[in-house]
Amino acid sequence: MGQPMTTTHEVRGHLKNVLAGQARNRQGNCRIHGAFTETLMPNDQWSGCPECLEEGKAQQRQAEQRDRAGQTRAAKLEQLREGAMIPRRFQQRTLENFATDGHDGKAFALAASRRYVERFEDRFAQGGGMVMSGSVGTGKSHLAYGIGNALLDQGYRVMGIDVYELIDLIKERAFSQKGGSEREAIKAFVAPLDLLILDEVGAQLGTEWERLMLFKIINERYKQMLPTVLISNCDAKELENYLGERVVDRMNEGGGMTLVMDWPSYRTPTDNQGRA
């Protein structure tokens, strides 16, 4: 059932005059659109240039559409961040707040990380990954998650996860869920993700099965030309022994690279940033 009209006496009278052809009109001149006819409104204000009014309405509609698009994008980014599994400690790590402290090696690593983000469209097309190796406290995780956070902001699907947690999820999906399998568990870390960041690679030797699962994920992503970033405290030789020379070599294909971060740890007893 329709709602009763709530227009005022003045508005109803004005509408009546308009319909009867008795409304007060006058000629006006717009600096933009030229001559026009305007009508005296119930509030004793003249209606103004109709084309200007329409343009104003169009601009308002566009602004509303931009607001809705912005809200949609913000909601999408929030959803991407929730799915990224980036640890809380690293959610605020950016390439902008990485401190080089005047160190040439740190400056080079930062520049390489920025280039990776800037050229990610090419890296994504070619499957180019990155290996960050070095001792603890050199900023490997900061740079890796700085890359991940920057790409999340651009709308890419990113996940960052420790290897031991990755193995736990594979076990859960493969053996604890009805109808689960290793193949299906591995697929969850391949096609749905534009970039996979694997932290603590080689931190624990694990079983042969665990190393095989890690190899399969990295290899499947390599075959599908999907970039992967590996973070490890191992040196180059230890990483080759852990993953195999072929895997490490493949990480450098498609514009990928290895960053060796071999400077001393910049953690101090008073540093609560937890950089790795």
From TrEMBL:
Domain AAA+ ATPase stretches: 126-252
Keyword Nucleotide-binding found: yes
GO molecular function, one term: ATP binding
Single GO BP term: DNA replication
InterPro entries recorded: AAA+_ATPase, IstB_ATP-bd, P-loop_NTPase
Keywords (A to Z) from UniProt: ATP-binding, Nucleotide-binding
Stated name of the protein: ATP-binding protein
